Amino acid sequence: MDGTILNHLNKVSICTKEIIDDLREQGIYVFIATGRAYGEIESVVPEGFQVDGFITSNGMAGYVGEEVVFEHSLSLELVETIIEKARENKVYYELFPYENPRVTLTKDKHYVEAEIREPKPESVGINEWLSRKQAIKEKINWNERIEGTKFSKFYFFARTEEHINRWKQELDLLKEEIDFSTSISSKHNVEVMVANVNKATGINQILQRFNLSETEIMAIGDSDNDLPMLNFVGHAVAMKNAPDHIKEIANDVTEYTCDEDGVYHYLKSKFNL
């Protein structure tokens, strides 16, 4: 979603919604594959926005309507271990339980809030910055302890690339002790999921639900967490605003960016709508 159907103000345009409606009326399936948790989607899409299914949290969960097609969960042991290490490294984090809103522990609030202090670092994208500001203000539950037993993902952020890169190195060391996956969607973040889970594995599980093959699928993306998906599908499309290494592995590149409704224009042209 981010950098693809979402503009940099974290909104899906009406024309993008309408082109998706047109495709679905023609019998073409449309799915969202996103790093966002399922509960984050409603606030960024227009009223009446509908697709045939969602792959969320970088492949950790899949939904068709009210049906939960699959859900993977981080273990409580891993969650507690990573929070301890995040505290040692003073890394901004949001934990996403399936049953409850995202969580950050109260004892970590001082340094988490400090990472979102003004001014915005020049290298941080405005969409990610606005999301973090909104999370601090109204989305995070500041709890004394971890609640729930099922967790869809961890999101980590740092205002400098040096800080987040040090944290990625810490996570790589931890992988030698506990098996898990990481995914990156910007220079300032990293996310943690269950081992061997990504957008491609999630898409594959949804395709099985619809008896579809990856050769029949086109995917559009813009960042590193889209690479497994773009390498998996039959036709890969990179956004104009994607970095060059994403464009290099794609079959096609949109003419317009996410801020110029690039997905709308591409689909309109591709399907002669």
Automatic annotation (TrEMBL):
The keyword Coiled coil is assigned to this record: yes
Pfam families: Hydrolase_3 (PF08282)
SUPFAM superfamilies recorded: HAD-like
GO cellular component terms, A-Z: cytosol
Gene3D superfamilies: 3.30.1240.10, HAD superfamily/HAD-like
Entry coiled-coil feature ranges: 157-184
Name of the protein in its database record: HAD family hydrolase
Origin organism lineage: Bacteria, Bacillati, Bacillota, Bacilli, Bacillales
